[in-house]
Amino acid sequence: MALPVGTKIGIGVVLAAALGYLVLSDTGEGVLEYMYVDQLMGDVQKYEHRTLKVHGLVVAKSIERKKGTTGDLRFVVEYNGQRLPVHYTNIPPDTFQEEGEVVLTGKLVDGVFESDEMSAKCPSKYEEEAGKAAMSELGKGG
Question: What is the pTM of this model?
Answer without folding.
Answer: 0.66
